[in-house]
From TrEMBL:
<dbReference type="InterPro" id="IPR037212">
    <property type="entry name" value="Med7/Med21-like"/>
</dbReference>
<dbReference type="Pfam" id="PF07544">
    <property type="entry name" value="Med9"/>
</dbReference>
<dbReference type="GO" id="GO:0006357">
    <property type="term" value="P:regulation of transcription by RNA polymerase II"/>
</dbReference>
<dbReference type="GO" id="GO:0016592">
    <property type="term" value="C:mediator complex"/>
</dbReference>
<comment type="similarity">
    <text>Belongs to the Mediator complex subunit 9 family.</text>
</comment>
<comment type="subunit">
    <text>Component of the Mediator complex.</text>
</comment>
<feature type="coiled-coil region">
    <location>
        <begin position="121"/>
        <end position="155"/>
    </location>
</feature>
<keyword id="KW-0805">Transcription regulation</keyword>
<keyword id="KW-0175">Coiled coil</keyword>
<dbReference type="GO" id="GO:0003712">
    <property type="term" value="F:transcription coregulator activity"/>
</dbReference>
<keyword id="KW-0010">Activator</keyword>
<dbReference type="InterPro" id="IPR011425">
    <property type="entry name" value="Med9"/>
</dbReference>
<keyword id="KW-0539">Nucleus</keyword>
<comment type="function">
    <text>Component of the Mediator complex, a coactivator involved in the regulated transcription of nearly all RNA polymerase II-dependent genes. Mediator functions as a bridge to convey information from gene-specific regulatory proteins to the basal RNA polymerase II transcription machinery. Mediator is recruited to promoters by direct interactions with regulatory proteins and serves as a scaffold for the assembly of a functional preinitiation complex with RNA polymerase II and the general transcription factors.</text>
</comment>
<keyword id="KW-0804">Transcription</keyword>
<protein>
    <recommendedName>
        <fullName>Mediator of RNA polymerase II transcription subunit 9</fullName>
    </recommendedName>
</protein>
Amino acid sequence: MASHLPEGLSPDSVDTLTELMSIVVKLRSAQAAASGGMSTPALGNLAGLPNISGTTGATSVAGGPSGATPALGAMTGSTPLAGGIGAAGNGAGMLSIKELPAATDNLKHKLQRARALVKTLPDVGRSIAQQEAEISELEERRRRQVAMLAKIKDEGLQFASAEQSTRDEGERMVE
């Protein structure tokens, strides 16, 4: 039995990681430019922030080695990085703290839509115990069906064998 996702719910509709990383890079570049401590090309380093694989350290936005920051619009996973001017970006790829709520609005709305769509899926309200009980019932039903098919197959083979024997005897009598 195939399960179908509601209209509008797809893996791309809930992919927030690339959008979130783009916002973080823009925010960090603005902070670095304000402090004058870190140059914009070195922002792919994001030292101390977790990368996509969940580890921390000197890795790029795409999880590669330091300095291997993908260009805006490049593919990272299945979704391209946001390019150009952000939702509230100033056009230079930088984002101030004041612009952060406006920049994350799209992300927040995307998650709200996904949450609402997930709630429309069948059996979302069922407990794990209820689901496990149904799985056990279905496995038992399948086992009984396999046994019944094996019995029908054996009876069919016996019937075919008996029919063949009857035909063979009939042909011998005619001769």
